Amino acid sequence: MRQNFGSLIAKRAILDPDLEALVDVASDRRFSCRELNTRVNKTASALSGLGAQKGDRIAVLAMNGLEFVEIFVACAKIGTIVVPLNWRLVADELAFIIKDAGATVLLYGSEFEDVVTELHSRGAEATDIKEWVAIGDVAPFAQSYDTLHDKGSETEPAVTAGEDDHLFIMYTSGTTGLPKGVIQTHNAMIWALITQLATVDLSKGDRYYIILPLFHVGALAPLAGCLYSGVTTVIARAFDPVETWKTIEREKITNMLAVPAMLNFMHQVPTKDEVDRSTINWIMSGAAPVPVSLIKAYEDMGIEIHQVYGLTESCGPGCVITGADALKYAGSTGKGFMHTSARVVDNDGNDVAVGDIGEVILSGPHMMEGYWNRPDATAETLKDGWLYTGDLASIDAQGFIYIQDRKKDMIISGGENIYPAEIENIILSHEGVKDVAVIGQPSDKWGESPFAVVVKADDGLSEADVLKHCEGKLAGFKQPKGAAFITEIPRNPSGKALKRLLRDDFPGPARE
Q1: Phi and psi angles of residue 150, each rounded to the nearest 5 degrees, phi first
Q2: What share of the chain is helix, strand, coil (3-state, %, to 5)?
């Protein structure tokens, strides 16, 4: 029998039928491995009853919760391909993804009925959707997920897919240009979860808290590892910093992943010290470099922050730092996962010298097959067995990698390369700063100059305060030439600042 991701969950249900597999926090529903697998089978039967066949694309527009999990695993079992949709997108953006993927079934949460109704009204020119299935309240043009599920069979479906067959197509966040669909196979997902579990301290009996949206690989890959290994998965419907601390105490959370912005918001919760957080072994953080000041703030709370680096294109794993190294090499994202090779190379593909900046490239059995319908972009990214990430980093003499920035966000001023993350790290150490993103503004004199966009933690903070705080901590050419204040940094669901939007809002020119 070919290895199928969904069949692994069925096996776990045989080995540990009564082990708690899933906790849906919002609805306070709990499911053992046996109960979850039974629900998955009923969903698989319902989808097959709609005519879904191996290779068909099924789009899912739903908040975190039981239904998303059982749909994903059910699709794996019957060989259909999941297209997770970002529920923050508008109708035009969703229509592009659904049409590009060729999805024929859309399962959606009823809270998204307005945008789904808009998609439905556009007809066949906008999407190829034939079956509209609502989780919750049902629109006139849709069927009820609950009704379909209840009629489904509990029988284990025949496995007809696996290994190199496609498991999901996840569209990149599109921080620059239109999103691209990343193709991941059953093998890639299985190797990704094996890679995670062979590298990090996570095992049966642990309780992992998912607060990132499941349409993001930073949530989907850990979910897969937990379902496979018998780790209880506790899923939040959406991130709320106050509720996160309450759930950590109530559910005795041992492990979780949070992007730096989430960690920042959690740290600002006034009641955090009233919560029993003694069960936490570690919190991983990725999607952007974690400010050293934030790592140390959590260290003072007795919590280790393990910086992780990964991509949708790598099905999650890239590099990670764990244990004592997390504090000794604070600011580093560590080394490649167990089954992952990681290098930092120059423009010619040669390894950079210690301390120099280059592009991170990755290799391993969990890399993407390619981009859906984008052979040109695939060829640019996958070269000679390596995935070229577009992320810039340095590497030290011990092999620890330090992520600097995205290539496209790098500022070139007077011929010097400036990495915004370095400046952001300095500015964030100011107690009056809640959040920050640094962009380049055009300069007649230097080509580009840094400009800071700041969210205040102290209403009294001024532009002069921000600029003065950077003096003596950065070389002159790295000093921001100005600062502006906004109420919130726009970020994608993985926590990356949408700097293209900030460049539109603050076009310059830079002060000379």
Answers
A1: -60, -30
A2: 35, 25, 40
Whether the CB-CB separation of 289 and 421 falls below 8 Å is answered with: yes
What domains can you pick out in the chain, each with its CATH number?
A: 5-13+24-162 (3.40.50.12780), 191-406 (3.40.50.12780), 410-505 (3.30.300.30)
- The answer to whether 446 and 414 have CB atoms below 8 angstroms apart is yes
CB 420 within 8 A of CB 450: yes
Mode of pairing for the β-strands spanning 483-485 and 447-456:
parallel
How far apart (Å, rounded) are the C-alpha atoms in residues 448 and 454? Answer: 19
Structural contact between residues 46 and 79, judged by C-beta atoms closer than 8 angstroms? no
CA distance to 98, 213, 340, 429, per residue, from 488 (Å)? 29, 19, 36, 18
Question: Does residue 441 contact residue 449 with C-beta atoms inside 8 Å?
Answer: yes
Q: Examine the pLDDT at 416 and tell me if it is beyond 70.
A: no
The sign of the torsion formed by the CA atoms of 192, 194, 197, 200 equals negative
The answer to whether 31 touches 22, Cβ cutoff 8 Å, is yes
Q: What letter does residue 153 receive in the DSSP assignment?
A: -
pTM of the predicted structure, to 2 decimals: 0.84
pLDDT surpassing 70 at residue 156 = yes
**21-74 confidence digits (pLDDT tens):** 999 999 999 999 999 999 999 999 999 999 999 999 999 999 999 999 999 999
DSSP state at residue 351: B
Q: Who wins on pLDDT, 229 or 260?
A: 229
Instruction: Assign 255 to helix, strand or coil.
Output: strand
- Residues near 161 by Cβ (< 8 Å), separated by ≥ 6? 2, 4, 54, 76, 78, 79, 186
Query: Can you tell me the distance from the alpha carbon of 461 to that of 454, in angstroms, rounded to the nearest whole number?
Result: 10
Say how far apart CA 450 and CA 298 lie, in whole Å. 29
Q: Distance between CA atoms of 190 and 185, rounded to whole angstroms?
A: 9
Give the dihedral of Cα atoms 123, 129, 134, 139; nearest 10 deg.
20
278-304: pLDDT as tens digits = 999 999 998 777 888 889 999 999 999
C-alpha span between 320 and 207 (Å, rounded): 20
CA atoms within 13 A on the CB side of 209: 32
